[in-house]
Write a structure and sequence with these properties.
147 residues; mainly alpha
Length: 147
């Protein structure tokens, strides 16, 4: 049951991320850092892709993804088409990984210590979903702010 819910939420929000990035009429604005805003939409998008591919793809799905977190916030001017491709590949990774899990897997302790204490895989996946939604809201706000 939780796996189905997570798939629905991740797919909804990753597809919405794609729509948000596509909705910038001026592609250059994706990389704009507005006053009193810490990150551009492009960097938040890269951060979400890195986060999900690390914790869901590499750790649970056993992909060969290697994260470079500092680059998520320092890279600039990645073409919009490349961001969209990265989002689409991330959707596939999430779906393939979640399809490989059982409800019993969600009760297991997540293989990494992330918040300085153990947590179940199910709890951490819910956290990752809310983390995605949080930054998706920031990207939506950013898009309307720099329009």
């Amino acid at each position: 049951m939780l796996i189905d819910t997570l798939k629905i939420l991740f797919n909804r929000d990753l597809n919405k991320l794609k729509v948000e990035i596509e909705s910038y009429q001026n592609k250059a604005l994706i990389w704009t850092i507005a006053p009193d805003i810490s990150n551009s939409a492009g960097n938040l998008c890269l951060h979400l892709i890195g986060n999900i591919n690390t914790y869901i793809g590499a750790e649970l799905g056993k992909t060969d993804y290697v994260r470079d977190r500092p680059l998520e916030f320092s890279l600039k001017d990645i073409p919009r088409s490349e961001l969209i491709s990265k989002i689409e590949r991330t959707i596939l990774v999430v779906n393939n990984t979640l399809d490989s899990l059982t409800e019993a897997d969600l009760e297991l302790i997540y293989p990494q210590i992330v918040f300085e204490k153990e947590m179940t895989t199910g709890f951490f996946l819910v956290h990752l979903s809310t983390h995605l939604a949080y930054h998706l809201g920031q990207i939506n706000y950013h898009r309307r702010l720099v329009f």
